[in-house]
């Protein structure tokens, strides 16, 4: 037995031993991830067959570093239930792929199987979780950790090893179609959820358990601040904005042990992230001590040819910067040429190869390359998906106490283009769903036994008003109208795609997509037809509840006036309709809190609670404040918050349920630097939160230790440290409803 | 005679000698500019009298570094023709101030008199020039140099020494109310105009002529990129964006010899500019070799107390960073305490004092402290004001060839809230005008002998439609309707102001201001009333010309459809109405070119031609392209551009007037880096322009030497250098209409 085959040897020794045996071509093979996984197989009458293209790719490099998306299914890949890999086939096909690689290469190095798991595995029968923005609205890392573990187990049971998961991007501009992939606008909230993601999927410890996978966190860094909320546009922000806002989630993920990060498309300081030595080496490796993998984004390295001149030079540029593994590009396959031409030393390539090999060892692929038989996982994930949906539903206003719907509100008119569509409630990066799966809002209300009528009312986009009359008639004849509006990231059969899978949306396309990768929106109001529908339905005088199924916070000032109650259900996943119904009917208390500020219009963007504190007053034609602030969310009861008290380095605050229903309150801790720091402070910064369950009349004291994670800020040298000065420690129910105590350090 | 009094001694020697004689208090006095100038005098029946407050301020520091705005008049200062200083009084009052300072202080150091000259001297009888955005539309540095010289002479003849002039800010987001103070969106255009400004006002050479003044360029740096176009908000941009976009105008001004720059309010990398050693010392002094003065913006240093803890520490922070002279703040008066406490070495204070004294010597104030008799200047400035107005008028479209108005279009209905208001056509930072001065568009058309009727039609803001019917009747009964719409920066008597003079605009104020400092707009469309008016007038079927009087590019997609011709006249100054009339009637050819991209909506902001080249495709609901591109502007004739040719380091292009009227065409040169640079390139970058006058049928060859100013870009180390690579050299009539030739370096 060779040293690298010795399961008891330290991983580092095994890697060194194996590396020493490898040819340049084999090394280059290990840092490449060229194929679309769905090109690796064909489904025939006899089952799945590996393609010649796959065999040739393995042969070309005497091995394969990673195979992307073997089980991916969606309109872009073109994979459907007719020709794809279902849950029943996944393990078998994955094993066939692995067996081919191991048995047909000189060294038999197993291949990493990489899958998109943005919110559940994007594969046929992969269990869909609510999108990250919904997860953000739960403010519940524990629940998300559990769901992430379930998704990981489901993935591993089908042969996947690496989950690509969006976590690091922030919604700094909700025009961006990928807002749904973010945990919200806030670095602290995103950091806690990113930690939970990594812990849930990977577990803790050097080696991964048999039901765990490695996580590659997307995207590093700053992609949420692209100019104009435009996908793939530049990021103009400076180092401080990057450090204060965009890096905390990545740092939390790295500290939690994330196996990898994906270099973002956007540039920073004139260099695409995959080519930025400052970011990938100076910051990530040297400053943070990250020892994992940096994966390129899809075809991102091809873009570097423009700067570098040719492919080998582009390959050398990215590798030298700190990119370890390609994705679909034609650049990293030229690394052999780059080394031979002396554009990059072999040692740098060896380091990247070592990172890939290390992960394979840590995953146990040399010892257990094939899928272990395990229990059926999907039911557990499904339950967690629905729990997240429930926890994410955010009650924005309920002035008329329309909610929960009174038992005497028997006739319910369910109206709107998002009332009865599973594809429209699951978000982007999702596979085709089986016809009978999922529960729409309409179905959820029906299931609950409500007396429901339904009219679509209008299309999601455009201004066709032909369906409004029917909806109005229905509303007029009912006790309450439930308007289900919002956006959609459902890709259609005729959607065109870019090389990297982003939708290509020409302005004015007759598409019903308003969100998702490549689908940015200039005007974040609802479509004109939806607005007309809401106005007409509200005008009937029938009490009206508006439910928003959405992947971004839409600007809904008028709707907020028209509807007695307003609920954001985000993209709640396939079973989200049941969650919505339960909240509307009072079977479940609403407990979501806004992970983003809800804007009044595109004209006031960007709007977030943690802007720099420069006393900005607002526009002459519109306030500078959001329609609903970050952290906001109502319950069906009332709560009272005491003033915070600080003693012995702990901040305590009392919360009382003063109403007659139970509540899950989210106590939020903000820090406001009021004097003495070395850089200009923000208005306030979230630095802690606790969920607390209170029965009617119950009181609880919530304690926050005021440690460095609460008080530290980014110093002039861009380190994190607690600077002497004066701080307001604020606690409350949302970012615009806090009480404070002064702390001098 | 002491050395410092010897006019023949080198300035540096005089400064050193004088400094050595000064007490700490006297030094502190020289770097302070505490008073509002209008508090220094009272007008009585017997004339202007110096106030006790002024005398006390001089006594307090045994001298006075600078006096701000002695002659300023506007609603903020509260100065009017009833109590202010007119042209007839200016020299006498200024001399009285100077005499008091010289004769009542130990060393008799003259005071610098500092005035706002954003577009003409902001004083009673000060001749108003069109705003900078209009100057930008002329693309004519020669004309502007002449106007700047005229304004300087006018100022000096009234006793002013330093002109504060906005020049460095760029319109990167037209929501910003100070867009009117910018030369446009483009660094190169702004750089050429900033150069012209400095050359025109200061002349060249070490000493200033008797009709010249020193220029302090506002604002350094990056203020045009404040978040959300919000005045005083943070600037999040990084060093590269700063260097590529926001610094070229400043660098050009410094190289042209600008006497000073004003540190901007905004922060950069967490520090307000006035506290940024990196900006004010590292970059400005050390890298660029700037030897002039850095002045703080109004009350800006007071804000530093939040960081520094107390006033002396804030003073030390700003002085150490490189700020030399205060403005109204309570911080720099504490510099003595700061030095005594050891917070900053005396040597640092001496350097700042030396900079102030040097400027006083260069201005000849020790030899000629009082105002020289000179010719009356205003008529010359007025002529130049009107020439700039003419040159700035930008014809955006003329599809129906409605313009120039045919002689048979006899009955002209002039309609709109900007048709007959001088205050609304002069912009912000202007003094009250004499009742009989100026020519509105309505008056201009009448003066030209047109048969004109007039209806205001609607208010500038709001949605009152009561005046529309009258306007529609007028239009229906006319041969052509001239709609004069847009915005206004006219401050009103009841406008409230911030400490620093910015208007305080509460959202929903019943104000007619839509622009100006402190007046930012979320929705850059015209007001609802104006839009309704345009729609109604256009619906009459009477041919319609729309003229926009505006301080920012408004989003006018619908108006562009409704009107046969669309003209932007910017804020054309008091006599701009005559210029507009002449262009409409064909007495003058339109020759303005857009200095900014005209957006389609606030939702697509920011939109500029020189964005980073990342292949952005547009929003799903709106294109990413502007309504009209940077550099665009039509003539009343047609022109043809040949392909560019490069030989011997010169790019040549032929332009032909193919129509039947004369033209002043603006040939634009753009550079597009297509390969090989060290940072990601922009779509294209303006690097040259030439105006060329062509008679009908005439052809000319325009030549651009391809020197470093054309080809250089910002390197990784943030220097300017020509990097090897492939370039497209593009020439054409606008940023979206070019032909190119490839150049490899």
Automatic annotation (TrEMBL), chains A, B:
<dbReference type="InterPro" id="IPR013783">
    <property type="entry name" value="Ig-like_fold"/>
</dbReference>
<dbReference type="Pfam" id="PF14310">
    <property type="entry name" value="Fn3-like"/>
</dbReference>
<dbReference type="InterPro" id="IPR002772">
    <property type="entry name" value="Glyco_hydro_3_C"/>
</dbReference>
<keyword id="KW-0378">Hydrolase</keyword>
<protein>
    <submittedName>
        <fullName>Glycoside hydrolase family 3 C-terminal domain-containing protein</fullName>
    </submittedName>
</protein>
<dbReference type="InterPro" id="IPR036962">
    <property type="entry name" value="Glyco_hydro_3_N_sf"/>
</dbReference>
<dbReference type="GO" id="GO:0016787">
    <property type="term" value="F:hydrolase activity"/>
</dbReference>
<dbReference type="Pfam" id="PF01915">
    <property type="entry name" value="Glyco_hydro_3_C"/>
</dbReference>
<dbReference type="InterPro" id="IPR001764">
    <property type="entry name" value="Glyco_hydro_3_N"/>
</dbReference>
<dbReference type="InterPro" id="IPR036881">
    <property type="entry name" value="Glyco_hydro_3_C_sf"/>
</dbReference>
<feature type="domain" description="Fibronectin type III-like">
    <location>
        <begin position="665"/>
        <end position="735"/>
    </location>
</feature>
<dbReference type="InterPro" id="IPR026891">
    <property type="entry name" value="Fn3-like"/>
</dbReference>
<dbReference type="InterPro" id="IPR051915">
    <property type="entry name" value="Cellulose_Degrad_GH3"/>
</dbReference>
<dbReference type="InterPro" id="IPR017853">
    <property type="entry name" value="GH"/>
</dbReference>
<dbReference type="Pfam" id="PF00933">
    <property type="entry name" value="Glyco_hydro_3"/>
</dbReference>
């Amino acid at each position: 037995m060779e040293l690298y085959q010795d399961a008891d040897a330290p991983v580092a020794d095994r890697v060194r031993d194996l590396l020493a045996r490898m040819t340049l071509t084999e090394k280059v093979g290990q840092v490449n991830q060229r194929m679309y996984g769905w090109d690796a197989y064909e489904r025939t009458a006899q089952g799945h067959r590996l393609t010649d293209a796959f065999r040739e790719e393995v042969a070309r490099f005497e091995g394969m570093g990673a195979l992307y998306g073997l089980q991916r299914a969606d309109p872009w890949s073109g994979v459907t239930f007719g020709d794809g890999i279902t849950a029943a086939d996944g393990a078998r096909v994955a094993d066939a792929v692995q067996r081919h690689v191991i048995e047909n290469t000189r060294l038999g190095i197993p291949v990493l199987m990489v899958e998109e798991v943005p919110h559940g595995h994007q594969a046929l029968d992969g269990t869909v979780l609510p999108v990250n923005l919904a997860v953000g609205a739960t403010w519940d890392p524990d629940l998300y950790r559990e769901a992430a573990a379930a998704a990981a187990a489901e993935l591993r049971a089908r042969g996947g090893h690496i989950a690509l998961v969006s976590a690091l991007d922030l919604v700094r501009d909700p025009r961006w179609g990928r807002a749904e992939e973010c945990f919200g606008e806030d670095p602290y909230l995103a950091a806690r959820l990113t930690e939970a993601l990594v812990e849930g999927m990977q577990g803790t410890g050097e080696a991964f358990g048999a039901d765990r996978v490695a996580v590659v966190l997307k995207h590093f860094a700053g992609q949420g601040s692209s100019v104009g909320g435009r996908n793939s546009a530049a990021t103009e922000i400076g180092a401080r904005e990057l450090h204060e806002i965009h890096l905390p989630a990545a740092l939390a993920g790295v500290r939690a042990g994330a196996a990898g990060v994906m270099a973002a498309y956007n540039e920073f300081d004139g260099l695409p992230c995959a080519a930025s030595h400052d970011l990938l080496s100076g910051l990530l490796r040297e400053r943070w001590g990250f020892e994992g993998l940096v994966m390129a984004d899809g075809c991102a390295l091809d873009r570097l040819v423009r700067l570098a001149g040719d492919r080998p030079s582009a390959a050398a540029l990215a590798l030298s910067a700190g990119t370890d593994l390609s994705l679909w590009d034609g650049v990293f396959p030229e690394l052999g040429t780059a080394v031979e031409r002396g554009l990059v030393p072999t040692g740098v390539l060896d380091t990247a190869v070592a990172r890939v090999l290390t992960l394979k060892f840590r995953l146990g692929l040399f010892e257990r390359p094939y899928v272990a038989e395990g229990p059926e996982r999907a039911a557990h994930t499904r339950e967690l998906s629905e729990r997240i949906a429930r926890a994410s539903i955010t009650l924005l206003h309920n002035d008329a106490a329309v909610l929960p719907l009174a038992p005497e509100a028997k006739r319910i008119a369910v109206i709107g283009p998002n009332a009865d569509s599973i594809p429209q409630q699951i978000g982007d990066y999702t596979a085709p769903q089986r016809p009978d799966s999922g529960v729409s809002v309409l179905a959820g209300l029906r299931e609950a036994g409500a007396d429901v009528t339904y009219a679509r009312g209008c299309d999601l986009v455009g201004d066709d008003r032909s369906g409004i009359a029917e909806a109005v008639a229905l509303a007029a004849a009912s006790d309450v109208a439930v308007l289900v509006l919002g956006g959609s990231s459902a890709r259609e059969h005729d959607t065109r795609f870019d090389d990297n899978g982003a939708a290509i949306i020409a302005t004015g396309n007759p598409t019903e997509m308003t969100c998702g990768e490549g689908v940015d929106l200039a005007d974040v109001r609802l479509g004109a037809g939806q607005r007309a529908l809401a106005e007409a339905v509200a005008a009937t005088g029938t009490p009206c509840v508006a439910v928003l199924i959405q992947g971004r916070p839409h600007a809904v000032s008028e709707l907020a006036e028209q509807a007695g109650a307003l609920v954001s259900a985000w993209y709640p996943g396939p079973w989200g309709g049941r969650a919505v119904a339960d909240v509307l009917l009072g079977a479940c208390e609403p407990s979501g809190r806004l992970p983003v500020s809800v804007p009044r219009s595109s004209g006031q963007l960007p709007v977030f609670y943690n802007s720099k504190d420069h006393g900005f007053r607002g526009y002459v034609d519109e306030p500078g404040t959001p329609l609903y602030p970050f952290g906001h969310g109502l319950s069906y009861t009332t709560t009272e918050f005491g003033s915070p008290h600080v003693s012995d380095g702990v901040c305590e605050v009392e919360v009382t349920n003063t109403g007659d229903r139970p509540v899950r309150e989210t106590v939020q801790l903000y820090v406001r630097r009021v004097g003495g720091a070395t850089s200009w402070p923000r208005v306030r910064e979230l630095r802690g939160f606790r969920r607390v369950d209170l029965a009617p009349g119950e009181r609880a004291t919530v304690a926050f230790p005021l440690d460095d994670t609460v008080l530290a800020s980014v110093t002039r040298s861009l380190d994190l440290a607690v600077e002497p000065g004066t701080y307001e420690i604020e606690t409350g129910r949302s970012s615009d409803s806090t009480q404070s105590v002064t702390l001098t350090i």
